[in-house]
Structures are given as C-alpha cells and as structure tokens.
C-alpha cells in the first residue's frame, strides 16, 4: 500500500469525482515551512493551514520585537511562494507556556488566560504581532490568512477581526476549539472570513479531558459523538454562509476521519506534512457522495468505535 500511496504523490487533492480539498501542512518554524514547501508542490500541498507562531518564541524570555517577528513571518511566507499560509496569532498558555506572556499563578491554565485571552493582560503582544504580519505581507508574495486561537464569543471574534483589519490584514479568521464557539459558529462566522476547527482543543474542552493525559485518550477521541456533532455544526454554518471551514487538529491526519470531514463540508485539512499523501490517497478513492454517506454513518453512531466501523464498512474495496 505504501508504494501505491507514493505512486499517487503527484496527484491533485480531489475526491474521485473531482471535488477539490485543500490539503495543507501544519508548521511551527521557518525550518518546518522550508521542509514542507520544498518536498511538495502547490497541487499536492496547497500551503500551510496552521502556522503555530508561539513555537518561534518558546525559548524567548522577552517579547520579540516587531522586527524580529517580521523577519520570521516573511521567511515562512516566502517558503510557500504564492501558496496559501494561515498564520495563527500567539497561542500562549496552558500546554504552550511563553515566559513573556503566560501568567505564572494559574490553577487551571487550560481554562485561564491563554490564546486570544492574553490580549486582556498584554494587549501590545497582539497589536505588535498583527503589525509584524502586515509588514511581512507588505513585502509581496502570498498574503497570509490570519486567525486567533481560543475564541469563545462573538464579541471576541468581532474585536479580533477589527484589530486585524485595522492592521492591514486582508483575510481574517478564528479557530473553533471551544464548544461555545462551535455551538454558535453561525454567529461567529458572520464576523470573519473563515474558521478553522482545532479538534485537539475542541475534544479537550467538549470532553472535559486534559489533552496531555494519555490515560484518558479514549475520552479525547475526536470520533466521540459529541465532538463530531460540534464539527458537523460548524461545517454546516460554513456551508450556509459560503465561507471556508478548515480542520487543523490532529484528526485531519487520520485518512478515515478526513473522509468524514470532507463529507461534512470541510473545505481544507491541515496536518503534519508527512500525513498528506495517505489522506490524499484516501480522498482520491472516494466520491464526495461516498464521503457524505460516511459522515452520516459517523454522526449516527453512539460511540467512537461504532462511528469508525460505520465508516470502514463504506470504504471502497480496493482491487
Ligand atoms: C487544536 O487545538 O486542535 C490545534 C490545532 O491547535 P493546538 O494543537 O496548537 O492547540
Ligand atoms: Mg488549540
């Protein structure tokens, strides 16, 4: 099967009936960007769907200057040429502590001042980052899509969109990783150009399960019906409003889940670049209609293993 997947390595990312899906790479550094871009072309990897900018500054003691940030962002954008790059503003806190942004004394950091919420205590971090991103974009080449993590309310989405647009960012989005945001995806989508579902945190917060606790992995499973339901609800809102809905959590890298997500109407899937060929291969074996049937089967199941099994039963038998 590995040979078969490799033989498809230059095939475009579409379903068997030609429905296109953007397959994108998750990156955290300029080196990641170089690697993902160099190994692929625009047909097979359409760009980056999640640039985790906090990774650039994990070891920094002081907030990076606008100029330091601009250099990193410009280099990552340049690596992808004119391919799409979705940049996430700093997601500091909880599992991603940054010395200059994280509050030291939180009892429940996953429920605390993390992601977009850091703006409440360090507003200049976000404004500097947006300035640096707009400056990097001003150098030509691809225009980044910019999204904020950990958005929970319409007011937050509106405030972020206003700040990003005022800084000169053309395409503004938010991540859907808090159940409150998924439940109200329609309202939030009215404020922005796109959303991207972070299934790692969406599962954590939906299932009240710390994403770092391996012994609770069964609860964190993105095939949990409640998590699938929230993903489906978000995808439906995107379809109704005609706006892109991506998935950039680990679940996008599972070929079986990728089929379900496409069936739900998700328009892009972002994953570690090594996972792209297997996902592309699975997509190319199935029509959009088959993906939709798989999505119905998954949503109709009352537990994760039955959801998976329901999808496996609909897989195209391979010659
Ligand atoms: C997610 O939460 O699914 C996500 C993509 O963001 P991160 O893993 O960086 O929190
Ligand atoms: Mg997240």
UniProtKB/TrEMBL annotation:
Predominant cellular place of this UniProt entry's protein: cytoplasm
Keywords tagged on the record: Cytoplasm, Kinase, Magnesium, Metal-binding, Phosphotransferase system, Pyruvate, Sugar transport, Transferase, Transport
One GO CC annotation: cytoplasm
Active-site residues annotated for this sequence: 248 (proton donor)
Top-level taxon: Bacteria
This enzyme's EC code(s): 2.7.3.9
Residues that bind phosphoenolpyruvate: 52, 88, 200-201, 211
GO terms of molecular function: kinase activity; metal ion binding; phosphoenolpyruvate-protein phosphotransferase activity
UniProt subcellular location: Cytoplasm
Cofactor list: Mg(2+)
Similarity comment text for this entry: Belongs to the PEP-utilizing enzyme family.
Function statement: General (non sugar-specific) component of the phosphoenolpyruvate-dependent sugar phosphotransferase system (sugar PTS). This major carbohydrate active-transport system catalyzes the phosphorylation of incoming sugar substrates concomitantly with their translocation across the cell membrane. Enzyme I transfers the phosphoryl group from phosphoenolpyruvate (PEP) to the phosphoryl carrier protein (HPr).
Name assigned to this protein: Phosphoenolpyruvate-protein phosphotransferase
Native organism taxonomy: Bacteria, Bacillati, Actinomycetota, Actinomycetes, Micrococcales
Residue window of the full protein shown: 249 to 567 of 572
